[in-house]
Amino acid sequence: MVPQRPVLAYFDPFDVFSLLKRDLYDNLPLVNLHWNHPARPLRLIATLDVDIVEEKAKQALPPKHQLPGLSSTPYLKIIFIQCEDNDTYKASVRPIIREWLDNKVKYTRDPTEWIVVHYIPNGSKVFLGNRFTYGVFDKIKADFNNEQKIDRCIQLRQEYLSQIEYKEAWKELMSRVKDGVLYAFSQRIDLYQTEIVKLEAAKHILGWNFGKFFVMKEGLALSFERMNLFEDALAVYKELETLFDQMLEKKELTFFNSVGFDDIPVSSNKIQDLEKQRHDILSNDITLFDFQYYLFSRQAFLILCIAKVSSTSSITASKIGELYLQLRLFLTEMNVFLLSNQKPIQKVAEWSFGIVTEFEEAIRLVDNDCLMEVAEGWGELLLLKRDSLETLAASKGWHIDGIFTNVLLEHTLKSDYQISNTTLQSFLQTPGSFFAHYKQFTEEAYAQFDLTDRAETKDILSTQLALLNYQLENYAQAANLLENLPNSLNQQGWTLISTTLLEIYVKCLLKLDRDEDLFRSSLELLPHYLSLTKVEISELVATVERLSVKISHSVNLNNYFLVEISTQITNVSGSDLYRMNVTVRNQIPEEFSFDSAVLKLQNLNNSTNILSFSSDGFILHKSRSVVLKFTTNKFSSGEYRVFSLEFVKGKLIFSQNFIDSTPILISLFPTPQNFYSKFLVPKAVNLKERCIGLELTTGLQPVKKAVLRFKSFTVSLKLISMKATSTSELIPVSVAHGRPPIITVENVPASTSFQITVPYILEQDISSARLKAFIEYTNMNDEEFSYYVDQKISISLALSVSVQDFFRSSELFSKFTVSCGLEKDPVRILNANITGNTQSNIASPFHAEINDIAFPGGDVTYAFHIERNNKKPDINIELNIKYRRLKTECFMVVWKKIESILEGTEFEKFSILLYQYFCELSYNVIKYSYSGIVDLPSEFIHQLKPVDKFLSIDDRKALSDFLDSELKGHVFKCNLDDIENNGLISELIIPVSIPQAHFVFTVELVFPKNVDYFVGKPISATVNINSTQDWAPPPSECESELRSETFNYCMLSVQDSWTSSGKNKGRFSIPSNKAFSSNDSHYEFPLTLIPLKVGLLPAPKISIQVASQRLEELAPISVEIDYKNEYQTVLIVPEVNRVTLNF
Predict the structure, then answer these.
(1) CA 483, CA 274: separation in Å to the nearest integer?
(2) What is the Cα 236 distance to its own chain's centre?
(3) Order of strands across the sheet with 734-736?
(4) Where is the Trs130 NTS domain (predicted)?
(5) Nearest to 380 by CA among 448, 460, 465, 467
(6) CATH number of 553-668
């Protein structure tokens, strides 16, 4: 079917049209028409085909009173005339034109435009006129161009002087034609619109004729269609559809004579017989089905027209997609409508199949490259065709078994129904042809949906194909389709369908002997045991049992079993094993046996630290709970979360990962009955070689052999494990090379504690370090265990010591200032002495046993007198300070009581945890320092946070109540004797180098004796300088060859107190035989001093500096000065005759 076209009618009384026909058709179709209606947007009509018809003189016109728009009438009428002189024109031609206008133009029911074409043949002697007399064409224009000032007359010649002149003439004619068509079109639109408004205004009047309104408004749509304004035409039909839907909803359908569909309707093209359908509608002689079919067909046709003339393929695809959608909705609604009105389902199915086929052929004529845009709609229509085929096949007893069937079983199928569609007849000749075409339609629909994002639809189609293949015993093809379908459908919520498909998939795999896929799918099907029979469950379990010994696979444990993990870890009595309990309930109503199980815990602070508990073979009885005991021979204290649980059966692993679920927190802590180890700083710290200690404590079992590896995880701390030593002479260590070195101890008795110390080097000053130790040990029964320590400890010193030295000729005074370390903890100093020097006499003004407390900001000072013997003193000595932190004393006072109340109770197993907690507790050491009483915070018992995380809620409450009852009102009084007996004294050994000086000068300013010193009077004094090299380093070869060393001396001014007369500076040399020898030298220099004021004036000082230059390879000369007069004053009095007394 082609769109309606505007009609151009011509009247040819002089047989001119045959001469112009070829030229006229060469200038068609009309192009670039611009319709600019005042009430509507500007429209561009790119091309417009027209139908040219001839009007006869005797042809009757339709009655004038007939409804406008009911049938097609010409938009433009043309009369062709030929006349050479005015007389002939007046006598015969003009009357013909006037008669034509009166009979054929003026009284038409629809607005029509007209044109007069005057034709001049070759050789014509037509008078063209001059300035005084009109020619023939002038007379024609004068007679017929008076109305509305529109030029409706045009002249054409058979020949022109040039091609340009020819084209201009025809261009003018076609322009007049376009203007005439557009003008008539505008007039008709206004006329129809006016009539429509009148009819619509009477809609609520009783007896209103919907058919008349429909035909009138459709006339408007047809006018748009004829002008290729398909979008506007479609909009009018949509308005009509909306009005019909409203009437349908209100059940105002009295103008339809019946439901219709007594016979299978003709095609949508034939139903668009406009004349018949419009007359039937106007006379209310149309069925409800035919009306809806006609209304849809008109809209579908216009959508196809829009698709054909669209300028881009994307618009074409969009319109085709729209048509597919409209067709699917129409067929769906019509199927429901017809079946609800008791129409035979086979007839409805056959009609639906024919409509889809018809549109399929129509759409093939439209060029379209955008497959994706139309794929979804076409896929839906293919499924409608397949549904029709399936419905008709059902009447023959042919069915697709399984789920997703589309046959409406509530409707009766007539077994004697005769199919009239030849295509359907060929499709349904045999069951094989039906199944083949069912499969073909399904695969074609799948291919369409594969271009879209309709994943769920593809799954359904794949399911239907798989079930068909299974029904036809094509097990391989069915298995390939079902491989991923059950999981996909299960994720979409189709659980029951997924289970059914999985069951069929397993049956296919059994037929195909594909053991690996069968094993995997059987395990996948087992959790759906509620949908299976007992026999099917037994067969699945037997399959799993058979294949688990040869095929590796892993499945999710919680799909089969319910587990409850106890958060308590207990130690196995008499062993260093730790145990956890897991309660397992078998949900499958069939017995399962396992070879082993593994429970893994992950450290919260170190994700790489995984602790594994294992259990030996066990049986899970059907629908019963079993408590499994998991043990581990590995220990690492800390907080853990359950990481995973695995049940092992041959090569099959049932696993459950707990990382993404709510954390199950578990704490592991050491008990006094088990092996225990921790890092600490040794009691004796020698700064010459600082060490880290690892304390090892055996539990109730002796250790036959232990192998240790130390590792520092602090970059700036380097362990020297090859120098590892034991603090116990009875437990020696052996060290072997390795990365890191391997430390071994053997035969450690039960309940024994000792330390292994390892020196370390600091590349930069740090206060703490993270260390790890890996310990593997065996007991006397050769049972193997491992212990892992990951600890951060403080390595900062409790004391800070500084020294200041004072030289004398034969003796040295060293003052050591002791203060608190970086942690600012008060420290009780118990002993301070210097050791390691046999060449000097060392004395101090205090006793060896002392009891001084260094507070933050309150330092303690100790001075030592070092006197040389005949030999030079040793360069290196050691300062040894024994001390105890006040915090440690407070802790020991408290711990002594707590240890006593824990002994023998059920809470003794928490003693190591409590020891660490009370050791780190903050105490009021200031009060303790002067009262000897330790105060515990009143709320400390209820705030055991470092301990709480290791305990269950019940243990936490019981321990808190126990400590509260035992410690409430207790006074913690310090007894230093008890503390000292516990061996808590720490020792700091500091290497100290005795300072060296090449020369020590004793300088004395000698004043005259038994004389008075008057202000302003000169005093003759003497500068005595004595030198010694007893504190000098040993001379090098170069220094031994020096002849002498030269020095400058100079008197230093004393703030306007003294001045000098004469020489107050000078130079002296020490000869080579005395330089760098142990011999002393003596020098005297005169010095005249003049006091400048009265009173006790401090004696002036004499400075001595090295004057000689040394070689670059020699160390600079160091000089120390001992001022004899440093604190001496001189009494200066005024002269007697100048004394002034003031009262």
Answers:
(1) 55
(2) 52
(3) 634-635, 784-794, 768-779, 703-712, 742-748, 734-736
(4) 323-516
(5) 448
(6) 2.60.40.10
| Residue 604 contacts residue 667 (beta carbons within 8 Å) | no
Please state, in angstroms and as integers, the Cα–Cα distance from residue 972 to each residue in 323, 566, 828, 912, 928, following that order.
95, 39, 19, 21, 10
- How would you label 162-172 residue by residue, b for 16+ Cβ within 10 Å and e otherwise? eeeeeeebbee
Amino acid at position 1004, single letter: E
Fold of 676-794: Immunoglobulin-like (2.60.40)
Answer for the pair 654, 555: CB distance below 8 angstroms, yes or no. yes
Beta strands per DSSP E along 359-465: none
Q: What three-state secondary structure class fits 18?
A: helix
How does 442-479 read in b/e, with b if 16+ C-beta sit within 10 Å? bebbbbbbeebebeebbbbbbbbbbbbbbeeebbebbb
Question: What's the predicted TM-score (pTM) here?
Answer: 0.61
Kindly report which listed range (54-68, 152-166, 192-206, 242-256) carries the lowest average pLDDT score: 54-68
For 7-195, which CATH class?
alpha beta
CB environment 589-602: b (16+ within 10 A), e (fewer):
ebebebeebbbbbb
Q: Provide the CATH number for the domain formed by 999-1133 in this structure.
A: 2.60.40.10
CB distance 48 to 6 below 8 Å:
yes
Does the fold of domain 676-794 match that of domain 553-668? yes
Residue 116: what residue type?
Answer: V
Report whether the peptide linkage leading into residue 29 is cis, meaning its omega lies within 30 degrees of zero: yes
- Neighbouring C-beta atoms of residue 1002, cutoff 10 Å: 20
Q: Give CA torsion, residues 82, 85, 91, 93, to 10 deg.
A: 20
The DSSP call for residue 255 is T
Distances (CA, A) of 752 to 413, 572, 677, 700, 1134: 94, 20, 11, 9, 84
What is the reported pLDDT for 132? 45
pLDDT tens for 1038-1062 read 555 555 788 888 988 777 888 888 7
Q: Give dist(CA 871, CA 873) in Å, integer.
A: 6
Of all helices (H) and strands (E), which one includes residue 491?
helix 485-491
Q: What is the DSSP letter of 104?
A: I
Token pair of 348, please?
Answer: 């409805």
Is the separation of the CB atoms in 411 and 379 below 8 Å?
no
Instruction: Give the confidence band of 65 by pLDDT, cuts at 50, 70, 90.
Output: very low
For 1069, residues 6+ apart whose C-beta sits below 8 A from its C-beta are 1044, 1045, 1046, 1047
For the chain, the domains span 7-195, 553-668, 676-794, 999-1133
**Residue 288: other Cβ atoms inside 10 A:** 18
Cα(683)–Cα(704) distance, rounded to whole angstroms? Answer: 27
